[in-house]
């Protein structure tokens, strides 16, 4: 799915706070905080909500390629 580091990086690219991500993903703020700090992995539907919210805002998740997983922004159309 996505890693805590990818979530943090994606928020950085979007200039979103954890609160903004939680609101966009329809999850609790503690869910985002705990996930990004590596305290716990959210329930599948909550993690999917986080990923979907970031993708809807223009983030592309780059899979592991030997150098590590990453994120980038979609080109403006």
TrEMBL record:
UniProt superkingdom: Bacteria
Short name of one Pfam family: HTH_3
Cited InterPro entries: Cro/C1-type_HTH, Lambda_DNA-bd_dom_sf
Domain HTH cro/C1-type: 8-61
PROSITE patterns associated with the record: HTH_CROC1 (PS50943)
Protein known as: Multiprotein-bridging factor 1 family protein
Species this chain originates from: Bosea vestrisii
